[in-house]
Amino acid sequence: MEEHDCQSTTHDYPHPFIHGVKLTRAQRIRGIILGSILFPLRITLAALFFLIIWPLARLRLAGLSEEDRSRPVTGWRHWLFHPIVWLLSRAVFFSLGFLWVKVKGRRADLKEAPVLVVAPHSGFLDMLVLCPSQLATVVSRSENASLPVIGALLEFNQSVLVSRKDPESRKKAVTQVTERLTSNGYWPQMLMFPEGTTTNGRALIKFKPGEYWQENNGCLIFIVLQFLPVYNPSQEEKNDPNLYADNVQKLMAKDLGIPATDYVMEGGVPVSKLGGLSLPLESPARKTLSLLLKNGLEASEVEAALDRMIDRCQSGAQGSKASAEELASVLGLTDRETAVTVCDLYSKDETVDFRQFYLSVAALSGFVSIKTLLHTAFSLFDREGRGSLSAEDLSDLMGALLGLPQHSTTELYLEASKQGQLTEENLLQVLTTHPTYQRVVNEYLQPEEAGSHLSFTSLANWKAVNNNGNVHNSNGSLHYNKKFE
């Protein structure tokens, strides 16, 4: 297999969270014809197999006490029900079009590898990998236990259930997983998707502390499942789980021939991590600029609107929170839906913090320098007027500048504070001279030069905004070019 440098500093990684499907006319016609025949047939067969599985899955643990359920199922309950449910599970996928599964490599036995990690994770049908792995146990959301059929299968599988909203549930899940993985073969193998979310499979996102891919070929789907050799961690990796996860990710990405990225999903938003900061793959401010351009706002109108926002924030009379209607009024928008869309970029309740809007948009507009912008930001978040920021103030300030809440600014705070004081001068110095944070400023907090980037100061040169929110100039070239080193 051709080798790839998974962490090339000059490589623009493909967006792992955007699924693009391009079909020829012939493919669309074939899909319509075959789909009208095969789709109802396949759904009917899959439903039939699921209905047969449902009671059988429940019978496996029927009559067992909670204490018995906390131990792996053995004896006749295992040898009777396990092969039947395995065969029916494979039949479900067969009926859905997954006719053949080509297996490459050797699956490590239980004592060699108590856990199988699978990547990339592209969707619910990834569960097909359970068949070649002999129905290895999984970790699943506790909410899934109440779903028809799925809940029965999770019970049959003796899955570890976890509620992401409950800290105690997460702790209990960690304890259960640790217990199973260190049971020296007492529990069956576990199967995990270390990315923690689904992607389009064009890159591996950062693993959270075997592989397969699929090709859709009309009405038949061919699967290749490859078991890689067991990865034994070094002592350094045992001491640093994040290093271990990163190295396994790179190894799997290399074999797949795709990049290994540091992208993660935070609060439903895809981000890249740098110096502890969460940098959105799609900047809310860039999308905002695109929407304002699309609605015909001139540079002077946007600049005037930003001035009104900052005046309101600094006066403190009305507060910094604004509704979609207030935002539309300040921006001079006649279309309320555009204001709602902008609010949705920054929050989930059709409101926007004018401090966040002003700082993130002004940073990319070119109306003010980074020094002036940081001075304004500092004055907005120095709540007590002490001339220095607390760690919490810094998190809020960086969240406003980047258009995304920041929860891990400890590294930046320690770097910028001197003698326990984080002054405006020290913060400016770190953001403009420190190699890591200088990248943040250059790539996220600066207007981009015309000819290769988006700049609101040259609105007259922009002619169109495409449907994806990317801005094009008069010669049609794309002016959104963000690099990750």
Main traits of this protein?
485 residues; alpha/beta; 4-stranded parallel sheet; 3-stranded mixed sheet; 44% helix; disordered C terminus
Write a compact overview of the structure shown:
One of its GO terms (biological process) is phospholipid biosynthetic process. α8 packs antiparallel against α11 (336-346), α12 packs antiparallel against α13 (370-381) and α13 packs across α14.
Describe the structure.
Helix 1 runs antiparallel to helix 3, helix 1 crosses helix 4 and helix 12 packs antiparallel against helix 13. The chain has a four-stranded parallel β-sheet, covered by helices on one side. Strands 1-7-6 form a three-stranded mixed β-sheet. With 485 residues, the protein is an alpha/beta fold. Among the domains are: 162 residues, no CATH class; 166 residues, no CATH class. The chain is globular and about 75 Å long. Helix content is 44%, strand content 13%. A hairpin with a 5-residue loop joins strand 13 and strand 14. The longest helix is centred in the first third of the chain and has 35 residues. The N terminus and C terminus are likely disordered.
